[in-house]
Amino acid sequence: MSFLSKFLPKKKPVEIKNNIPKEKNSIKKTFAVYCHAHHGTTGDKLCPKCTALLATVMTRMNRCRYGITKPICDRCEFTAQCFGERQAREFLTIMNSNRGRMYLKHPIMSIKHKFLSMGVDYARYEQQKKRDDKAKAKEKAAKGRSKEQKEKK
Ligand SMILES: [Zn+2]
């Protein structure tokens, strides 16, 4: 060990965060807020339909193809494959319909969720940009090649 390394901050091992428990909690709360508002339920109780849908979502989350590195469900491109089309639609309706209400009831959680989805959007944007850049570079290279060939003739 060098003398200096004693004073340098230790490198933290990269840890993969398991976001599933947090996300489950957030989804449960969102369902409760939605069900209370739309189906007249109160407290911890949800109507049978929401209870069933929530149960499906919870079990599917455990089997997420991404494992614990999963993105949040309402931003995942596999929601329909994962939950089934009808249930995915109902799930997304619930998740999207009461953003405003969630901000009032659980502001900090909502903001965190918003940041998470922004992160997902940003990652997607970056991926798309990379793909676009690659395509452009290819195009350019192809053009350059055809130019060279023309010049040779
Ligand atoms: Zn309900």
UniProtKB/TrEMBL annotation:
InterPro entries: Uncharacterised_YgbA (IPR020483)
Region (Disordered): 127-153
One Pfam family named in its UniProt record: YgbA_NO
Taxonomy, superkingdom: Bacteria
Name of this protein: Nitrous oxide-stimulated promoter
Species of origin: Selenomonas bovis
